[in-house]
Amino acid sequence: MRFIIRTFFKTLRLVLGPFMLLWEFVSRPKGLLRPAPAQQAVNAQCQSLVLYQFATCPFCIKVRQEMRRLSLPIERRDAQHNAQHRADLAQGGGAVKVPCLKITEPSGQTRWLYESGAIISYLRERFTA
């Protein structure tokens, strides 16, 4: 029975995935325009952030759309197809759950932020001021 359920959801993902990615592309928001020095400062801050994601996860798409809206060049890591990224997420964050934002503080301490709503709130708070 478990095999049938897994097969069903895998097939569903394979069928719906391309449509979700197409919708993400079509509904791509315009990025926030900042003066060049301000954007360079944002780019430097984004180097301490990494988003662990699955390409067709609707919550990951939601976070990526917000990243585009705020013009944030955050590194994205595929935790679905890359075993090393998946292992890093499991070891560092404690669970293979996406989206997950890895935040490295200036002190070197690392935080793992799960849940799309929490990630979006964090990004808005940090980068819209």
Low-confidence stretches: none
Which radius of gyration do the C-alpha atoms yield?
A: 16 Å
Mean pLDDT equals 94
Strand content: 5-15%
Quickly count the helices. 5
Order of neighbouring strands in the sheet with most strands: 2-1-3-4
User: What is the first-to-last residue Cα distance?
Assistant: 51 Å
Shape: globular
Describe the sheet with the most strands. Answer: 4 strands, mixed
Q: Strand-and-helix sequence, N→C?
A: HHEHEHEEH
What can you tell me about this protein's structure?
By secondary structure, the protein is α+β, with helices and mostly antiparallel strands. Helix content is 55%, strand content 15%. It contains five helices and four strands, in the order ααβαβαββα. It has helices at 2-26, 36-46, 58-69, 83-93, 116-127; strands at residues 49-53, 75-78, 100-104, 110-114. A four-stranded mixed beta sheet has the order 2-1-3-4, with helices on both faces. A hairpin with a 5-residue loop joins strand 3 and strand 4 (110-114). Helix 3 (58-69) runs parallel beside helix 5. The longest helix has 25 residues, at 2-26. The chain starts with a helix and ends with a helix. The mean pLDDT is 94.
Brief descriptors of the model:
4 strands; single chain; 4-stranded mixed beta sheet; 15% strand; alpha+beta; 129 residues
